[in-house]
């Protein structure tokens, strides 16, 4: 099996902004800045990231997701 791919996404915006990332397809693990562990997500699930923060994503397959600015 191929090694998991890692990417880091930085969200640079006002600290009061909130982003919801919704998975469209695939599955992966996500670690939000400040969390100690990765959490598993798959299509149909979502997670929230505060503004001016970041998250790490690792996966062994193609993942599609959409980020929504919620406030």
What would your notes on this structure say?
- This protein has 71 residues and is mostly beta strands.
- 0% of the residues lie in helices and 61% in strands.
- The chain has strands at 5-11, 18-25, 27-32, 39-42, 46-50, 53-59, 64-69.
- The strands form two sheets. It has a four-stranded antiparallel beta sheet with strand order 1-6-3-4, with no helix packed on it.
- The radius of gyration is 12 Å and the shape is globular.
- It starts with a strand and ends with a strand.
How many H/I helices? Answer: 0
Query: What low-confidence regions span 5 or more consecutive residues with pLDDT below 50?
Result: none
Q: What is the arithmetic mean of pLDDT?
A: 85
Using only CA atoms, what is the Rg? Answer: 12 Å
How many DSSP-defined strands?
Answer: 7
Please give the largest β-sheet.
4 strands, antiparallel
The string of secondary-structure elements, in order, is EEEEEEE
């Amino acid at each position: 099996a191929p090694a998991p791919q890692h990417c880091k996404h930085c969200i640079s915006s006002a600290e009061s902004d909130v982003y919801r990332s919704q998975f469209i397809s695939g599955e992966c693990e996500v670690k939000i800045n400040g969390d100690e562990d990765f959490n598993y997500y798959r299509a149909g699930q979502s997670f929230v990231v505060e503004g001016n923060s970041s998250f790490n994503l690792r996966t062994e397959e193609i993942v599609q997701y959409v980020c929504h600015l919620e406030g």
